[in-house]
Amino acid sequence: MAYDKPETIAHVSITQQCWQLGNIKGEVRAADYTWQFQWRFRYRQLLIKPSLGKALIQEPLGRFLESCDYKLESGSNYTFTIRAKI
């Protein structure tokens, strides 16, 4: 018997980027949650606010940003799949 794996689609909006500072800012939405994030890619540091539900998004968002950071553009929207139900 096959079971469907739970998943949630996360929507990412890039609001600001600065290559000189190594910084990307944006918003991520998944299920009923919305977070603001700052990705300091030179230091591999991800800051997320608010803290409510932060543990749900930190790892999958970090993986997404690490794999795509140089392709992301300010003002653009992206999606990725989280292999869990949020």
Topology, element by element:
Elements: E1 8-18, E2 23-30, E3 33-40, E4 45-49, H1 54-68, E5 77-82
Antiparallel strand pairs: 1-2, 1-5, 2-3, 3-4
Describe this structure in words.
This protein is 17% helix and 44% strand. It has one helix and five strands.
Largest sheet: 5 strands, antiparallel
Number of helices: 1
Rounded mean pLDDT score: 93
Strand order of the largest sheet: 4-3-2-1-5
Class derived from helix and strand content: alpha+beta
Number of domains as seen in the coordinates = 1
Approximate strand percentage: 35-45%
Low-confidence stretches: none
Task: Give a count of the beta strands, DSSP E runs of length 2 or more.
Answer: 5
What's this, in brief?
This protein has one helix and five strands, in the order ββββαβ. It has one helix at 54-68; strands at 8-18, 23-30, 33-40, 45-49, 77-82. It starts with 7 loop residues before the first strand and ends with a strand.
Q: How would you describe this structure in keywords?
A:
single chain, 86 residues, alpha+beta, 5 strands, globular
